[in-house]
Amino acid sequence: MRLFAWVGLAVLSAPALPSGPVGAAPATRCTSPSQQLLPEVPWTHRRLDPPRVWPLTRGEGVLVAVVDTGVDATVPQLAGRVRPGTDVVNRVGDANDDCYGHGTFVAGIIAAQPRSGTGMVGLAPGATILPVRQANGPSDGTASTLARSIRVAVDAGASVINVSASSFFPNEELRAAVEYAAGRDVLLVAAVANEAQQGNPVAYPAAYPQVLAVGSVGPDGRRSEFSEVGAYLDLVAPGVDVVSLSRAGAGHLVDSGTSYATPFVAAAAALVRSYHPRLTAAQVKRRLELTADHPGTALPDPQLGWGVVNPYQAVTALLAEEHTRAPATLRPPTLGPVGQPQAGTDDEDRAIEFALTAAVLAGLIGLVAYLIPLGIRRDWRSAGEPEDDRDRRGESG
Where does the sequence pass through the membrane (predicted)? Predict the structure, then answer.
């Protein structure tokens, strides 16, 4: 099953591009590492402003699976944040190395640690990365390995899964894996792919309704010309000239693609799951949609979805619809129009509504019983009553 071709990493030193699969006996040269640090704060971080949300959460306690080409755990800015993981495509060993470099770049966007001399840092540096290798490079992944990788990530305890790869054909095994994740309260975040100018084929798993589908925008806030469009698009995030980590080195790379917009949204989901641990995956998805920087069009927009992800608003916003049911429920809320809860019709909804009404009435009665005598003691009077009238009655203030 064909997977979309990842946008090749723009390696700052001369790359030795892969020429074949990598397994127990690699038959290819790996991409050359970069040692060049980029000192400035990337435009992506100026746009999303992660330091604003970090006093509340940095994604602590959340395991984010990166279903990709592996993640190089030796990279300094990922030190201590990467688990061994699982190699699905080669069926041997761990996945905490990365010949091609794509997965390391994605993981850096999520969880790279702060480092002096650079403004490049992950959006959720408190999160932990679980690498799941579903491909060695841009040409050997399949819908089957993608499906197996999703199940492996779920079973390993990930609560957010980043998938920066797509199949352009619906596949029963992949659909079942998506449902497996949703049924276990795991949020799947997937790229919509980069072929808007090559026929805009429907991308899976992004097109499945349980998945949070992500497209790309540039510094001007407009949809990237390569970013696919469609009714299933949920959110967009920076995906042009993105700065992240090189494999096997201490330096940085710059690249573009929906592959790299997706981990910004996965990281925002990690921030929400860390700060609001009782929200279900469906509620986290809905919260990210409702708190995005909305475009000035009908929502969702086929080119921009609900808009650009907003990590701070996603963590801090108060959404009434999250409280229409008991907080401990694992069922997703019943959704009405955007931002509005739809009135419940079952016995539970009526019981909650009755209890809330009774509590409010009891509080009002108690408040009135308290305030009436208090008002007499303090000599309340009409705001328009002259002071002289009160003096003539012999009252004092």
Answer: 354-372
Q: Is the Cβ–Cβ distance between 83 and 70 less than 8 Å? A: no
- Note whether residue 220 is domain-resident: yes
Condensed to tens digits (0 to 9), the pLDDT of residues 41-74 reads 999 999 999 999 999 999 999 999 999 999 999 9
Q: Please spell the DSSP secondary structure of 60-89, one letter per residue.
A: TT-EEEEEES---TTSGGGTTSB---EESS
Q: What is the pLDDT of residues 175-228, one digit of tens each?
A: 999 999 999 999 999 999 999 999 999 999 999 999 999 999 999 999 999 999
Helices 258-275 and 281-290, axial angle in degrees (round to 10): 110
Alpha carbon 245 to chain centroid, angstroms = 19
84 and 132 together in one domain: yes
Q: Taking the CB of residue 171, how many other CB atoms lie within 10 A of it? A: 17
DSSP state string for 254-297: EE-SHHHHHHHHHHHHHHHHHH-TTS-HHHHHHHHHHTSB--SS
Query: Same domain for 129 and 163?
Result: yes
Tell me what pLDDT residue 384 has.
Answer: 39
Residues assigned a catalytic role: 68, 102, 259
CB contact at 8 A, 251 and 77:
no
CATH number reported for the structural domain that contains residue 70 in this entry = 3.40.50.200
Q: What is the per-residue pLDDT across 270-305, written as a single tens digit (0 to 9) for each?
A: 999 999 999 999 999 999 999 999 999 999 999 999
Starting from the edge strand earliest in sequence, which strands make up the sheet with 235-238, in order? 86-87, 128-133, 63-68, 160-163, 187-191, 212-217, 235-238
List residues bridging with 243 in a β-sheet.
254
Cα distance between residue 339 and residue 381, in whole Å: 42
Residues 313 and 384 placed together within one structural domain of the fold: no
Strands 212-217 and 235-238: parallel
The whole-angstrom distance between residue 232's C-alpha and the CA centroid of its chain comes to: 16
